[in-house]
Amino acid sequence: MATENLSPALHAPASSRPYAKAKPGYGKRCAPDQRPPRNDDFALLPERERYIAGYVDRLPDGAAMDIKSLAKNLPLYGQMAVAGALKALGVAGHLRHVRCLAGGGDQIRWVTRTFWSRTAHDNEWWDAFLTAEGSGSAPEAVAIASAAVASASSAEAETPSPSLSPSPSGSLAPSTAPPESAPAAPADLAVPQQRTPESAQEQHSPAYLALAQLGRSEPRLTLSATDCAVLEGLAGAWLARGVNTDYLTHALTSGLPDRVDTPVGFIRRRLVDKIPPRLPAAPTPSAPGIHGRRLMVECTECGAPGRPEALPDGLCLPCRTPAPEIDSDTAPNSALGEPLAERDIRALVGNLRDLLRVD
C-alpha cells in the first residue's frame, strides 16, 4: 500500500545527534504555552525553514543557538542559509533572541538567549511574555507558589482526623469528647490573674538606656530617671541621624573637665552643640544595563538590542525596511557622473586627496 507523505521536506536529524552546548546561562530556552509535538508542526514553512525548525525543536535547553554551531551540525545548509532561516522563523513567531542579565552580586553579566516556541505566537504574546520575563514575574514565581500550595495541602492531609465512635443508633459518628488524659477543669475554680512585674512592663527607648548607662561608665555623668526622661528626646535626635548608642556614649564622655557640677545641664549642652549632621540617603544601586532593564530583545538580523515592543517579528526598523532599488543605468556612480570604467583612477585619487587636504 502507498503511504501518504504529509511532509515532502527532508527529516531533521534525530535528537541523539551530537549538539553543541552553550556556556552556562546562554543558549536555547523553551517558551511556555506550547502544544505537544506533532508531525505537521512546521508544515506551512518552506523546506529549509521546516528542516532547521525540526532540528532546533529537538534541541534541549542550554544548547548553542548561534549560527556557526547550527550550521556545523546541519550539513545541508551553510551559515548564510541558517541565518536566513532563523530570521524567517522569528518572523513566523517561533523564536526571539534576547539579551538579559544573569548572575548576582559582582558577577552580573549580559548573556544572550534564544526563546523557542514550537507553537507560533504573535507579537503581542511575545511582548507580554518577554516583559514579564524581564520584570522577574515569571514561571519561577508560579512554581514557588504552586509548591507552597502543595506543601500546605500535604501538611493539612497529615493532620489527624477526629476519631469515630459508635452513636446510639449504631452508626459511626465523630467523637467530640475530650481525651481522658486532659480532664476538664471545674467551672467554679477561678484561675488567679497573673501580674507582670513593674520592671518588665517598662519599655524604654535605646536613647533612654544609653543615657542611663552613662553613670556606670563615667561617674561624673550620673543621671537620675527624671534626667534621662528629660534628655531622651535630644539623644533620640542623634540616633535618628544614623549614629548608634556607642557613638553617642563616646561623644558625651570624651574630653570631660575635672569636675562636672550639674551632669544634666552639661549633657544637655553637649547634645545640642555636638549633634551630628544629617547625611543624605544613599542612592539605591541599579543593575547595569540600558535604563536598568534586565532583558532586551535582539534583532534576529543584526543583533541590535531594544524593547520587546520596538522589535516586532524580532527585527529592528532598518532590517524591516527594504532597501530602495537603484537603477544602475540612470543612477550616477559618483559625483562626477561618469561611468567607473571611463574614469582616470589616478585623477580621482588626486581629487580625493585635494578634498581631504587641510589648508
Summarize the structure.
This protein is of the alpha+beta class.
Explain what the structure shows:
37% of the residues lie in helices and 9% in strands. The chain has 359 residues and is an alpha+beta fold. It has a 5-stranded mixed β-sheet with strand order 1-3-2-6-7. Among the domains are: 7-136 and 294-320, no CATH class; 204-273, no CATH class.
The main β sheet shows up as: 5 strands, mixed
- Assembly state (oligomeric): single chain
Spatial extent as radius of gyration: 39 Å
Overall number of strands: 7
Percent helix range: 25-40%
The SS-based structural class is alpha+beta
* Low-pLDDT runs: 138-179, 181-189, 286-292, 331-337
H/E element string?
A: EHHHEEHHEEHHHHHHEEHH
Strand order of the largest sheet: 1-3-2-6-7
Percent range for β-strand residues: 5-15%
| Shape summary | elongated
Arithmetic mean pLDDT: 73
